[in-house]
What does this fold into?
Amino acid sequence: MAASLSASLRFCGALLVLLAGGATLAGCAGISETVAPAFADPARYDLYDCKQLESERKALAGRTTDLQRLMDKAQTGAGGAVVSELAYRNDYVAVRGQAQLVEDAWRRNRCRETPPDAKPQASTPQRPEIKPAPTRPGSAAR
It folds into this structure.
């Protein structure tokens, strides 16, 4: 009788631990994307011009895609949901927050996409103006 009671208690304890772990992971997975800007500096992109914002947008979009791909790949394995949340979720949320701030700065600056076939403007190098050194009165060249 004592052995069956001990086994029942162990089973209930293990079940309780599994339920608590599942609830914890479900809470992490349900983090809203509105929390994302909390992980980024809101003033970081204030002084960027449109060209800088465009390159930053592309870099963050690529990073977001990479992280999403890594999270999807991790979820295919055993315990993948746990690995995905622990390894990549914080980075993913931070990158999404930065991307949201870049988009806000993009709209605020009224930036436009550069056409893909546009060539960068090549500026012709200007020869610097070199002036001779001033001469002192009364000194003769030797």
Observations:
- The CA atoms of residues 43 and 101 lie 9 Å apart.
- The helical segments are 2-29, 50-74, 80-108.
